[in-house]
Amino acid sequence: MSAISTTGTTEAAAAGHVVINPSTGQAVSTVPLATVEETDAAIATAQAVGPAWRAVSPADRGRLLRRFAEVVDAHVEELAALEVLGAGHTIANARWEAGNVRDVLAYYSAAPERLFGRQIPVAGGIDVTFKEPLGTVGIIVPWNFPMPIAGWGLAPALAAGNTVVLKPAELTPLTAMRLGELALEAGIPEGVFTVLAGRGTVVGERFVTHPAVRKICFTGSTQVGQRIMRGAADQVKRVTLELGGKSANVVFEDADLERAAATAPLSVFDNAGQDCCARSRILVQRSVFDQFMALFETAVRGVVVADPAQETTQMGPLISAGQRERVRSYVEDAPDEVDVAFRGECPTGDGFWYPATVVLPRGPGDRVWREEVFGPVVAVMPFDDEADAVAKANDTAYGLSGSIWTRDLGRALRVARGIEAGNLSVNSHSSVRYSTPFGGFKQSGLGRELGPDALDGFTDVKNVFLCTD
User: Fold this and answer.
1) Distance, CA of 223 to CA of 371 (rounded, Å)
2) C-alpha to C-alpha distance for 448 and 118, rounded to whole angstroms
3) How many CA atoms lie less than 13 Å away from 186 in the CB half-sphere?
4) Alpha-carbon span 21 to 7, nearest angstrom
5) Are 324 and 332 in contact (CB under 8 A)?
6) So which residues are the catalytic ones?
7) Using 50, 70 and 90 to split pLDDT, how confident is the model at 6?
């Protein structure tokens, strides 16, 4: 890992960002941060090699992406260990995340040979369309899922013939930097995919203002996404935005309550609740509310919160002390708004730990019910009937994900069509597959990642008419 220097000294902080192990609070490495000049140089290189990358035949571009997937596969354990160290992810999650990068690369390795245009019937000739790459794409990755979200952007972008400059989050740059090295090892040409560690106010801002960056993929807060969107407007620059979420888990009285309650904890506490898709609002039909809560309490108290390197751990620490304080403020600083129903256990001492917490909001206007906590806190509220469930699920600025629990297929479809969210699951909490589109409604974002739809966001349609008269 030549790009990463291991150190525990505070002196190194002056030269870059010190990466902290969230489970211990100790420094594990220092990463140099790029300047504006270095950002410009990386973008210039990506722009310069763009024509050559675009000219690589579809079959050869696909082979390179498959080779990249194979190299990632050979380093899954190494990448997973890095994510445990630098992001506090459980080892089981981290292995899945590294494997997801591999699988996304493999999926999009088929795309270059299937980037089809159309032949449109017209009078006097033949009309055909082509999907052309945009150019250089800037990808800004968040700290909560550093590996998968990097892959969701870079794989379809490269497959479509674009070059990529990727900025990982300051807090969690280690795995993205290693992916940059593995891309070169796989034969991806220099400059086609560049990882540039740096601050959002420096590197990310330069992606917005640099005219050679023709698209930005951003995953993060709605507030930052709005700023990027405003900045991109100056150059009519394309954006894909995956922003916040306040997803509802809707449990009807006819549901399999045991299964709904048993699966609910990890639908929100996975990754310590630091997930835009977290089902952080649970709506339970009033007639079964008490029964569900009794089952749910048993399930919550059974969540194993421990050292993320242990194979049995289900939930690790929060990413930082600041994030822990933010999460705490929704519960401890709001005694007039929330009642704590019950909590799980978590380690004490060093590290950024917070227990799995279930709260009962006093009303739909409470902060914990309306705002994205981004931590292991879930609010539970009863509803009366189907219409009430849909109304309460939609009473949010967000619309990213959610779950519906019922044995009634007709109800499942009605409620799924009624809830304003981009990714819903019935009798499941599985929102994300690399072969299906992912994205949000309302303030949860714009555009779609993953699946066949993602390629549309990395190409422009060119129409060509050939006169035969």
Assistant:
1) 13
2) 21
3) 27
4) 12
5) no
6) 242, 276
7) very low
CA distances from 454 to 107, 437, 457 (A): 12, 7, 6
Gap between the Cα atoms of 158 and 112, Å rounded: 9
Find the length of the chain: 469
Tokens of 262: 């048993």
CA R_g for the chain? 23
What distance lies between CA 54 and its chain's CA centroid?
27
**pLDDT 10s digits, 324-372:** 999 999 998 877 778 999 999 999 989 999 999 999 998 999 999 999 9
Residue 245: φ, ψ to 5° = -155, 155
Mean pLDDT of 409-437: 97
The CA angle 425-147-177, to the nearest 5 degrees, is: 170
User: What's the rounded mean pLDDT across residues 420-446?
Assistant: 96
Q: How many helices (H) and strands (E) does the chain have?
A: 14, 20
What confidence tens digit (pLDDT) does each residue in 243-252 have?
999 999 999 9
Q: Which residues of 22-41 are buried (b: 16+ CB within 10 A; e: fewer)?
A: bbbeebbbbbbbbeeebbee
Cβ neighbours for 391, distance < 8 A, ≥ 6 positions apart: none
Q: Give the list of residues 6+ apart from residue 283 with CB closer than 8 angstroms, or none.
A: 248, 249, 250, 251, 380, 381, 382, 383, 389, 392, 393
Q: What is the model's pLDDT at position 336?
A: 74
Rounded to 5, what percent of the chain is helix, strand, coil? Answer: 40, 25, 35
Do residues 360 and 353 make contact, with C-beta atoms less than 8 angstroms apart? no
Residue type, 438: F
pLDDT of residue 15: 57
Average pLDDT across the chain, whole number: 95
Residues sharing a CB contact under 8 Å with residue 333, sequence separation 6 or more, in sequence order: none
- 184, amino acid identity: L
From residue 314, give the alpha-carbon distance in Å to each of 55, 234, 268, 271, 383.
46, 45, 12, 8, 30
Contact status, residue 88 vs residue 430, Cβ threshold 8 Å: no
- When pLDDT is cut at 50, 70 and 90, the band that residue 110 belongs to is very high
Using alpha carbons, list the distances in angstroms from residue 223 to 237, 243, 423: 18, 9, 21
